[in-house]
Amino acid sequence: MTASLLEELAWRGLLHQHTEPLQDALDRGPLSAYCGFDPTASSLHVGSLIPVMGLMHLQRAGNTPFALVGGGTGLIGDPSGKTAERQLNTLDVVEENTRALKRQLERFLDFTGTNAAQMRNNADWLRPLSAIELMRDVGKHFTINYMLAKESVQQRMESGISYTEFSYMLLQAYDFRELYLRDGVTLQVGGSDQWGNITAGLELIRRTEAAEAHALTFPLVATASGTKFGKTESGNVWLDADRTSPYRFYQFWINVDDRDAGKYLRFFTLLSRGEIESLERDILKKPQERAAQQALAREVTTRVHGADAARIAEDVSRLLFARGDPASLSASALDALSREVPFAEISELVTVVDGLVELKLAASKGAARRLIEQGGASINGRRIGAVAESPGDPLAGSYYLLRKGAREYGLIRVSR
Hints:
Strand content: 5-15%
Radius of gyration: 26 Å
Oligomer: single chain
CATH class of the largest domain: Alpha Beta
Largest sheet: 6 strands, mixed
């Protein structure tokens, strides 16, 4: 028997809380559900994947997902989870970011078929909305006490919160009602920090339309080590390949803690319960093989960047960390590697000494000669035994991969 949507979300650890009548509503037939996405940046990051995966599970269960890009609310900013006022973006920046997010969301949801995913932009109804209309048609349905009681507001009372961010929940409530009226949307989903904003929408729909709507939230992701999920030394892990390369994206997932691997397989992949539990047993029996992390990295990178990019990232990772065979790398993989290690493009490579100096793997020609004499240099996977030894034939017709010691790599491309 196929698990229900809520059962599926529960065993995956994705179910935080929901309104009590939701299961009955799901039993009566498919729903239309939406999740909002903030366009204050031009890319989603891995922290955004929880609600995206939630929409995927909703669609797989027969429901129609709506991805609402906040082209209107993005001009203001949601106070939830924030400790200070955010910088307000210009209209042009928000519109540009909105277009970028739409392209990313299209990778996850099926926009064809009987329950095809839909995109909406709340700028379509919020930008024409006047202040008088907002206060008359929305504001009158909420008391100050009701708004002050919301956790997102309470957390900001000491540090201060502007009227702009204080009123954000009214706009989100208005979004829910608009989607209800325009598209029959009766369920909003989001992170657990969105509960207060979502339930404000339920209240507005109940008061103005005498209708029932529902809420479902997902947990916020935490790591076993206590570090912030989705952060690395270089900052956020983005879905945009120009911000975080597919290789570095792959590395983020393959390096997750053993204690988090099973949880993340449930959260971020569509692998079955049996497959995940088998990988979890491998963590206990053969942790050194990191099979769970490899499956996680492969699955998520494939979904975000495509199978070719995931394969290249895996090949590059194998080379750099498992001493793979450089000759097996394709030109595409070598091109990807050029963005991850010291790289130079020259017309001709006469000696390995020249290459080591060009890549700054050696400070001088003298240092490069000493490195070679001590057996500490290799080229294209072949250890260099003598200073005069030829660089040999290039990889894929034009690349030389140099290594200093065990893990320091550099790549040269010759362009004759």
